[in-house]
Amino acid sequence: MERQETPVLFLSTADEPDAITEAWARLEEIVGSLQGRKFFGVFGPPDGAYRVCLQVRGDDDAALSGLQSGSIPGGHYLSTTVQGEPPEIYSHIPTRYAELNQVADHDTTRPSIEFYRRRDEIDLLVPVKAR
């Protein structure tokens, strides 16, 4: 699949389960209502950190909310979808990424993406080299 570059606001944390859980809770605290927002988890290059992200809307103000601004790189991605109820759904993410990485011509210059489509549906995307 092809993705366009996506402007986001984010918090950066260690790529470890407890730190990620805390960062998502902090983002939810800052943002307030999650309705109508698009959320992403992004990890890998450039620094190996995990970023909890929300897509930028016109009324967002990063300075007031304490979030950093950046973007999720566009390009070609191999994807799969994980479905299930939280928190169990999260335990399936590492295995499904491993499966994608076995068949992907991985582009190590771009991060992998988790797109939180709904609370019970997550798209996992691994960047692949253009053919």
From TrEMBL:
Domain of life (superkingdom)? Bacteria
**What InterPro entries is this protein classified in?**
Reg_factor_effector_dom_sf
> Which SUPFAM superfamilies does the UniProt entry name for this protein?
Probable bacterial effector-binding domain
Descriptive protein name: AraC family transcriptional regulator
